[in-house]
Amino acid sequence: MNQTNQTAKTVYLTTYWIWIALFVIAPLVLVVYYSFFDIDGNLSLENYQTFFTSTYLSMTLSSFWYAFLITFFSLLVGYPTAYLLTKTKHKQLWLLLILLPSWINLLLKAYAFLGIFGTYGITNQFLEAIGIGTKQILFTDFSFVFVSVYIFIPFMILPIYNAIEKLPPSLVYASRDLGASNWTTFRRVIFPLTLDGVKSGIQIVFIPALSLFMITRLIAGNRVITLGTAIEQQFLVTQNWGMGSTIAVFLILAMVLVMVVTRDWGAKGAVRR
């Protein structure tokens, strides 16, 4: 019996490591490899030198800024929503309704907002009806952040909802019995004990928000340029795979940094508890 279990474990582990090697390690190695070749196929550090120019550094800061805004507003809306969901009846049904839009193709949602925010869309029709008049909503920072938050917010709500659901109600009751106000209970008990959910939500939203490219084209009209947009441009337009790979290397490093920072934050929160 033990021999059978050991054989099964070995098979599972072997399959797992083969999958990791083929679909995680190999692509990363290829990205790093191609980053050392210039557009003519010569081995060079030119791509890395180019990345540290003002253009790409400004693009990197812009990517982090927009990813921060998307994550911040997702958390600002997502946390109260997740908290209210845990207090409502039929919470699973409401949670399902919130998650349903995430099942729809991203391209379809982006095109839907082209109609909603367009010159003759429902938003401008409403502004006309209340006397404000038609406004340019598409191809602005607002439309880009708004649509991005709409797309990512279910992924912020779900881990926070799970964290709040696991919170022992006795701790909240004890806090209130000791005379703490609702705000103090939230600040000193509920929020610290749900930091793991917040941390997971930040990772799930911030990391892909760094590499957005389709929404920047459709909704922001290339007014917003991110690292994801630059990678697409290098691979598909200029055919400079080396520069595209170099940007991807720094994007991967940025994602790893975000994961390390949020993990440490969660660990510190656990220590304070």
From TrEMBL:
GO CC list: plasma membrane
Entries under Pfam families matching the protein: BPD_transp_1 (PF00528)
Principal localisation: membrane
Biological source species: Exiguobacterium sp. (strain ATCC BAA-1283 / AT1b)
Membrane topology field: Multi-pass membrane protein
Keywords: Cell membrane, Membrane, Transmembrane, Transmembrane helix, Transport
PANTHER family: INNER MEMBRANE ABC TRANSPORTER PERMEASE PROTEIN YDCU-RELATED, INNER MEMBRANE ABC TRANSPORTER PERMEASE PROTEIN YDCU-RELATED-RELATED
UniProt similarity note: Belongs to the binding-protein-dependent transport system permease family. CysTW subfamily.
Subcellular location: Cell membrane
Domain (ABC transmembrane type-1) ranges: 60-262
Listed GO biological process terms: transmembrane transport
Protein name, as recorded: Binding-protein-dependent transport systems inner membrane component
InterPro entries referenced in this protein's UniProt entry, alphabetically: MetI-like, MetI-like_sf
